[in-house]
Design goal:
This protein folds into two domains: about 5-65 and about 155-340, QueA-like (3-Layer(aba) Sandwich), CATH 3.40.1780.10; about 65-145, Thrombin, subunit H. Helices cover about 15% and strands about 30% of the residues. It has six helices and 18 strands. It has helices at about 140, 180-190, 230-240, 250-260, 300-310, 315-325; strands at about 25-30, 35-40, 55-60, 60-65, 65-75, 80-85, 90-95, 105-110, 115-120, 125-130, 140-145, 165-170, 195-200, 225, 245-250, 270-275, 290-295, 335-340. The strands form three sheets. The chain has a nine-stranded mixed beta sheet with strand order 2-1-18-17-15-3-13-14-16. It has a six-stranded antiparallel barrel with strand order 5-6-7-10-9-8. A two-stranded parallel ribbon has the order 4-12. Strand 9 (about 115-120) and strand 10 (about 125-130) form a beta hairpin. Helix 5 (about 300-310) crosses helix 6 (about 315-325). The longest helix has 13 residues, at about 315-325. The protein is globular.
Length: about 350
């Protein structure tokens, strides 16, 4: 297995720059693994492929306005912070932009707390400390970070949040969930499909390509996730009753399969809270996920490897080629797949 096995050519015009409105009018490509069929439809019609008793597992993480502009002290030169992970009340791991941001360097944020660089980590990563907690200042100084392949301005930052986002902590959105609207969720609940909520705070490393020739040598990003005892009970009961566990997004897949590793005999998952570095490659044995909703992923990414593990690499790349020919929209603001 080589990283180049997960490469494909994507025309630039297929990368979605803006979200569709309403959200549920995005297109949906349905891949049935058992029947080896493809259906072309729209997300609003996803109920045609679901059954009463199915459980959709959604990630309720909320993207924080983690992009902050600052000035160097002394001198006033420009600097930029992208908050990745909170370590304690005032200490964060961040990506920094700007020269000379070594240990001990001070930064000022207009209408916000001062910052000090505590430690130089790999590449542009730094451990930084604010003079007081930054969260109360997010409304004044924070900007929602969009993926690097999106170049259009987003007028409404809420379009890069799911409608059910609750728990702040992500540097990027769990984008498979962007297609759901309250109306669609109500429609599904009316037919007997239920929702269960998990949390996985998405890191920016989710966009990082695998640069190693052998993907097994890639250091997977670690992300914090939680599956509560209440959610574990719903999932285990659904499975015991014959319902399908359908992960909404690769973040939900990682959370479910992490929680499955500690499951008791007869259960699908166990409660879990903590960091996960689960790397799902072809050959992985799925224990919790029966089906998944997902977007179209970047070439040579860990996310494309994950969906290839679920549906087969050759079939996945063939499906992507058809999606390109059928002019589906790719990546974060793009269209969706349902893999059954």
């Amino acid at each position: 297995m080589k990283t180049t096995d997960f490469d494909y050519d994507l025309p630039q015009e297929r990368i979605a720059q803006t979200p569709v409105y309403p959200r549920h009018t995005s297109r949906l490509l349905v891949l049935n693994r058992e029947a080896d069929t493809l259906d072309h439809t729209h997300f609003w019609e996803i109920d045609r492929y679901l059954m009463p008793g199915d459980l959709l597992v959604i990630n309720e993480t909320r993207v924080i306005p983690a992009r902050i502009f600052a000035k160097k002290l002394p001198g006033g030169g420009k600097a930029e912070l992208l908050l990745l992970k909170k370590q304690d009340d005032t200490t964060w791991t961040a990506l920094v932009g700007g020269k000379g941001l070594k240990e001990g360097r001070k930064l000022a944020i207009d209408q916000g707390p001062d910052v000090e660089v505590l430690q130089v980590l790999e590449g542009p990563k730094r451990l930084i400390r604010f003079s007081e907690p930054i969260e109360p200042f997010f409304g004044k100084v924070g900007h929602v970070p969009l993926p690097p392949y999106i170049h259009e301005h987003l007028d409404d930052p809420e379009r890069y949040q799911t409608v059910y986002a609750r728990e702040p902590g992500s540097a990027a959105a769990p984008t498979a969930g962007l297609h759901f609207t309250p109306e669609l969720m109500h429609k599904l609940e009316e037919m007997g499909v239920r929702f269960a909520r998990v949390d996985l705070h998405v890191g920016l490393d989710t966009f990082a390509p695998v640069n190693e020739e052998d993907p097994t040598e890639h250091k997977i990003h670690t992300e914090w996730c939680e599956l509560t005892p209440e959610t574990a009970e719903i999932i285990n009961r659904t499975s015991a009753d014959g319902g399908r566990i359908i992960a909404v997004g690769t973040t939900s897949v990682r959370t479910l399969e992490t929680a499955a590793q500690g499951a008791k005999t007869g259960d699908v998952v166990a409660p879990f809270s903590g960091p996960t570095n689960l790397f799902i490659l072809p050959g992985f044995e799925f224990k919790a996920v029966d089906a998944m909703v997902t977007n179209f992923h970047l070439p040579k990414s860990t996310l494309l490897m994950l969906v290839s593990a679920f549906a087969g690499r050759e079939r996945m790349l063939k499906t992507y080629q058809i999606a390109i020919e059928e002019e589906y929209r790719f990546f974060s603001f793009g269209d969706a797949m349902l893999i059954l």
